[in-house]
From TrEMBL:
Belongs to the peptidase S58 family. InterPro entries: ArgJ-like_dom_sf (IPR016117), Peptidase_S58_DmpA (IPR005321). SUPFAM superfamilies: DmpA/ArgJ-like. This is D-aminopeptidase. Gene3D superfamilies: L-amino peptidase D-ALA esterase/amidase (3.60.70.12). It comes from Pseudovibrio japonicus.
Amino acid sequence: MFQEITIGSLPKGQRNTLCDVPGVKVGHVTLADGDCQTGVTAITTRDENAFEVRTRAASHVFNGFGKSIGLVQVEELGELETPILLTNTLSVGAVSEGLIRHTLEQTPEIDLMKATINPVVFECNDAFLNKISALKVRPHHAEEAIDAVSEEFAQGAVGAGRGMSCYGLKGGIGSASRQVKVGKRVYHVGALVLANMGRLPDLVLGGQHVGPQIEQQLVSDESGPEKGSIIMIIGSDLPLSERQLKRVAARTSVGLVRTGSFLGHGSGDIALAFTTADPVDTKSRKRTHSVEQVDERRIDRVFRAAAEATEEAIVNSMLNAERVTGRDGNTRYALGEFGDLMGDANE
């Protein structure tokens, strides 16, 4: 086992996950059978109907090598009207259909309104372990992931993270959180990542460059170009405007590069930040709305929280993953199998 890895200085939330943000829940559907190593992960931001009571959000695209759905409207309107779903690259269409069907079932009046739905679906390519062209993820898996959401959820090689690789090892779903005090009130900033990026020689854990040592033990060559991706979701109950949320989303890059990534040419790196504060009630008859936001002179601690939680979420995606063998006998070893290296690095 690894010695404790210390990341950052801010206090963690009680669960140390995205679900420390009140109202946020996460659920998985995992498909693990031979060449099929994939799944779906769902994030709901509130208990109310997401289409009727919308969550303020913004995204930041660091490297657009990806096939996500829904970001254009999120950028334009600054809000989410569905849960956030994660899956593999070629399953975006199926998961989007499932998310649309879920929303129509929950809100049948959408048809009478002649309205449309903006599903938000993110992806990473899990083709090393998963026969992605088999298209095993179907629309009902998206609905099942939403039905499975809870404040307690598994991390590692589960859900959308089942077939993902991180720094040449097993990656997947990871999460962490930080507490932020503003005035007399304590708020939370939580991160959830779908980690599928990085080169093993670059891996840094808690400031220790351990990648080369692991590579020697594996007797492998992971020194090629970076071709993976990462999706970084930040949630908070802090009162933040859409503009501020975009700034917070951009700070996830700080946590990402601290683990060793340089956001290579073939890596799709995308962040989305949302706040459960000041939701948008579509049934409101008010002509004007007042929106509270954190004073810009106090926002540095929010940036720090986003960076720390993202870094730890990436590490947790690896520490919680087990070894997985998938398509063509391809194997990704778990980071936990090399736990003695942190002790060596500190000597």
